[in-house]
Write a structure and sequence with these properties.
Helix content: 25-40%
Low-confidence stretches: 1-5, 8-12, 73-82, 142-146
Number of strands: 14
Radius of gyration: 21 Å
Shape: globular
Strand order of the largest sheet: 4-3-2-5-8-10-11-14-13-12
Largest sheet: 10 strands, mixed
Length: 442
């Protein structure tokens, strides 16, 4: 029995995506490109520093370009477990006991947030919280600025994104403890194929469906949040305030989420990111490309969140951390590990796009951030006009996989030619998680 071919929809007429197997053709040239960039940058910095002014030092979010943490009395700045957090700025970071999530959570704590570490393993999450708090204490023990809130990491309840029951349980505990949520960072992810207890593909459910459900449940708390900028012109509405911020971790692999990538025998293929395509992503052993598909789904989810809830102050941003030397490479041979450490970003560097997405006063219509220099750059001002942001056109996948690290830059991502794709994704997700309403997006 072969593949079932459907009549192509309007969204299938122009497929701008690469097929999944092409990733492995692009990755080796990306490493070579990165090595050339590093050598060239070293030479230019030494001989002609004015030519590399924009990439000489990685960008950081300045205080005038990020959310303001309200002042409080020194007595309420304590990091003891007795601190009343109900009125504090609160963030959730999934998969934050290690890697990118750990560094993102740690940076948010340093800025003054109460950060919930949303992880599967209780002991690992509690250990991570202790490490983050110890690190933050060490940085602030000498002096705590008058009235400045001191952040704190804590573990509240286990969260297994491959289980809808676990997602709902975590959300129930959180909403019983807190009345708002300022920042939600959907960071956790995995690779590999297996079947969850909910009957879905484990990679697609963990990386995307679980985050979709978590975000949908927490939307009322996100909409209750009040994030303010130093400038009264900041924020998506240009009035200095926003509701909650949602950060969806994507990847350069989103370029390789073509609907024409080969699937299991008997799978329905229309050549479009339609409802059948997304159901296939969630069905175990139908697609061997669910990692790329889940990261692409994160971008489309970001678009729909902005469309549906942007008028209420919510802002969603998607970001690519870059090629990071993380735990996923731990089984590689020692020589390979040395090359990876030389060419890839550290987890701290990789978290820079997550942090900028979480707290930055992004330019209007900015959807996607990534950490590398790209050809054809231009600069745009943020909403508050305080800081110029790099904004690159859509890159070739090679230059988004690796290259010259600039911290973060707004970048055009690869998107389908029709909005049908993101509406199909939203509708299928509502069915899968049991939130289906009578009206569907069109």
């Amino acid at each position: 029995m072969g593949l079932t071919k459907k009549k192509p929809s309007s969204a299938a007429l122009d497929d701008p995506f690469y097929q999944g197997q092409w990733f492995f053709r692009f990755f080796p040239p990306a490493l070579v490109y990165c090595a050339i960039c590093k050598v060239t940058l070293f030479l230019l910095r030494s001989l002609f520093p004015f030519l590399v002014r924009d990439v000489a030092s990685p960008r950081e979010i300045l205080p005038e370009e990020r959310f303001v943490i309200p002042l409080t009395s020194p007595s309420s700045s304590s990091i003891s477990n007795d601190t009343n957090d109900s009125d504090r700025h609160v963030a959730i970071v999934t998969g934050s006991n290690t890697g990118l999530g750990f560094e993102t959570a740690s940076s948010l704590v340093e800025l003054g947030y109460i950060v919930i570490l949303a992880c599967r393993n209780t002991s690992k999450a509690e250990e991570a919280a202790a490490k983050i708090n110890a690190r933050n204490n060490q940085k602030t023990s000498s002096t705590v600025e008058g009235g400045k809130q001191q952040g704190r990491a804590l573990f509240l309840h286990p969260l297994d994104l491959s289980s809808m029951e676990s997602v709902r349980s975590f959300a129930e505990v959180f909403t019983s403890e807190y009345n708002h949520l300022n920042i939600l960072v959907n960071n956790a992810g995995l690779q590999g194929q297996s079947k969850t207890a909910d009957g879905m593909d484990a990679c697609f459910q963990t990386n995307f469906i679980g985050h979709y459900l978590l975000t949908r449940i927490l939307l009322p708390h996100l909409l209750k949040a009040r994030n303010t900028f130093p400038s009264k012109e900041g924020g998506i509405a240009g009035n200095g305030t926003e509701a909650g911020r949602v950060v969806n971790l994507s990847s350069a692999t989103h370029h390789f989420a073509s609907p024409n990538t080969e699937r299991a025998e008997g799978a329905t293929m229309s050549g479009a990111h339609d409802e059948d395509f997304w159901r296939g992503c969630a069905t175990p052993f139908v697609s061997g490309n669910t990692y790329a598909e889940s990261k692409f789904a994160m971008i489309l989810f970001t678009q729909v969140l902005n469309e549906k809830f942007g008028s209420q102050g919510l802002r969603a941003v998607s970001c690519d951390p870059g090629s990071v030397s993380s735990d996923m490479w731990r089984g590689a041979p020692p020589m390979v590990l040395k090359i990876i450490d030389m060419l890839m970003l550290s987890t701290k560097q990789g978290s820079s796009t997550s942090l900028a997405s979480a707290v930055g006063d992004l330019p209007k219509d900015a959807l996607f951030l990534q950490p590398y220099w790209q050809p054809g750059k231009c600069k745009v001002l943020s909403n508050s006009k305080a800081m110029p942001w790099l904004w690159y056109p859509r890159p070739n996948p090679i230059t988004e996989m690796s290259g010259i690290y600039v911290g973060f830059a707004v970048t055009d991502c690869r998107l389908p030619p029709s909005p049908e794709s993101r509406y199909a994704l939203w509708n299928v997700c509502e069915e899968l998680v049991g939130l289906k309403t009578k009206e569907t997006l069109k």
